[in-house]
Translation initiation factor IF-3
Amino acid sequence: MPGVPRQTSKEQAISEPRINDRIRVPEVRLVGPNGEQVGIVRVEDALRLAAEADLDLVEVAPMARPPVAKLMDYGKYKYEAAMKAREARKNQINTVIKEIKLRPKIDAHDYGTKKGHVERFLKAGDKVKVTIMFRGREQSRPELGFRLLQRLAEDVAELGFVESAPRQDGRNMVMVIGPAKKKTAVRQEKRRDAERAAAEAHGQTPAEATVTETAPTEQATTEPVASAGPAATQETTEQE
């Protein structure tokens, strides 16, 4: 196709393993379908064993000498790999930075409103960039902005912590507050709340629902959350 660069054999080997008759080496170190070591065999014999078991011969370590090949259902393997990648993307942690702008002489009502926004963002697991905007003669009184930022940090201390201390940024002063709970923890809490609500809707207590769904010999485990790729950063600004 014009305009589309052709893949080199090296690029193809990286993107997808060689399988079955594409494995063109005299012998391979064969691994069975359950992970058992079969040993070094001729590639013709490995292909015959794969055909007899209705499986594929997949080269899993092409750089080894001899290459390592495994008997497996390649279609099932690709499907499971795709599902794992999808789950990793689903659990990716997105770092969202919200922004709140204040004036150094803000009145009590507006301050309460802005503080409420900061609390809501922190509860959702988002960082908050707080900007104090100075105008005119206010620029000669930076301590007003510093005190306001200190007050805000103290008022939301149960939900977040000062990640970046107040600093002058041109005519403004900024401070970043990080959430006490990470997004993953917030997501897990929401999932537990949804499960609890569903259990109560069916006339069960959360404990009864857990007993119903879990075998007596099993133990509850916590699944780790994976982070795939670099965190994406998004800024949302709320102005006075």
Q: What stands out?
A: Confidence is low (pLDDT under 50) at residues 1-14, 209-234. Helices lie at 9-15, 43-52, 74-90, 108-123, 142-155, 183-201, 206-213. Residues 134 and 171 are 6 Å apart (CA to CA).
